[in-house]
Amino acid sequence: MQLDFVTVDVFAERRFGGNPLAVLPDGRGLTTAQMQAIAAKFNLAETTFVLPPLDAAHTAQVRIFTPRAELPFAGHPNVGTAFVLASRGACHGRVIGDPLIFEEKAGLVRLDLLRDAGAVAGARLTAPQPLTRGDDIAPDKVAAACSLDAADVETAQHTPCIASCGLPLAFAELKTRAALAKARPRTDAFIAHLPVERATGILIYVRDDSGGFNVQARMFAPLYGVPEDPATGSANVTLVGLLASLRPERDLSLKLRIAQGVDMGRPSVLEAAAEKKGGKIERLSIGGRCVNVMRGNIEL
């Protein structure tokens, strides 16, 4: 049995930037255990497997795996998978339309294609679930998980907390860019304070309007086999919703240009947006460009 695969860099302006993703455009016949083993073999932040949709009105069913576990939803795997399928032009014998609708464990995910001179250049996803904010986390516990001091954590706008629009993550603002740069994940502190049943990982960020960006971010998920993620769409689409929810305006269109992966040598650019009407977050989206890297096949 041979399986074709493609790897792409997602949220990337150039090859070898952004977040690498492996896509298997035809995952039919694979068991869950085989999918997990293949994802562990690639050892990328995520690997996706494309299956025929359960509902013919949708584009495909997509399953997402880290090296250690399956995820109900994630950002860069959706953007990269949409880019791969649209570039191929067909999926399981059906022509790819725009938008694409993926069936995932978190719900339906809509992807609108981004084009450059008519060619597919990337995609923008709409979050599959509304923003929810969970429990708060003590600043010292966040600091311990990131090898920082509690004094590095900014609490003026919000206390560190759990939030989700399809994948629960912890969020914490830091006071300085220097603190962001020196952060390192501590697995023991994640086990103690942020176990997998509580959050997939933690996004730490600073507000930074220099260099054409609004936010600089990093994301750690060591318990899922991802010590650091170069670009995390699921986290940043939730972040823009969280920040919009904290603003006093009842009607607001908030757009953020976010840099991630800079400190690990894989610079990524994510364009996040939130629409707020009558005090309620109504739509969250995130998008970016993709670059093809490799293609080949796996023998089973």
Which key terms come to mind for this protein?
300 residues, alpha+beta, Diaminopimelate Epimerase, Chain A, domain 1, 2 domains, eight-stranded mixed barrel, two-stranded antiparallel ribbon, 6 helices, 20 strands, 20% helix, 43% strand
What shape does the CA trace take? globular
CATH superfamily of the largest domain: Diaminopimelate Epimerase, Chain A, domain 1
Q: What share of residues is helical?
A: 10-25%
The secondary structure category is alpha+beta
Ranges where pLDDT stays below 50 over 5 or more residues in a row are none
End-to-end Cα distance: 5 Å
The CATH topology of the largest domain is Diaminopimelate Epimerase, Chain A, domain 1
Please state the second-level CATH architecture of the largest domain: Roll
Strand order, sheet with most strands: 1-2-3-4-8-9-10-20
The CATH class label of the largest domain is Alpha Beta
Largest sheet: 8 strands, mixed, barrel
- Helix tally equals 6
The radius of gyration is 18 Å
What number of domains?
Answer: 2
> How many E strands?
20
Describe this entry's structure for a reader:
The chain is an alpha+beta fold and 300 residues long. It has two domains: 2-128 and 289-299, Diaminopimelate Epimerase, Chain A, domain 1 (Roll), CATH 3.10.310.10; 132-286, Diaminopimelate Epimerase, Chain A, domain 1 (Roll), CATH 3.10.310. The chain has six helices and 20 strands. β13 and β14 form a beta hairpin. α3 runs antiparallel to α5 (187-193). It starts with a strand and ends with a strand.
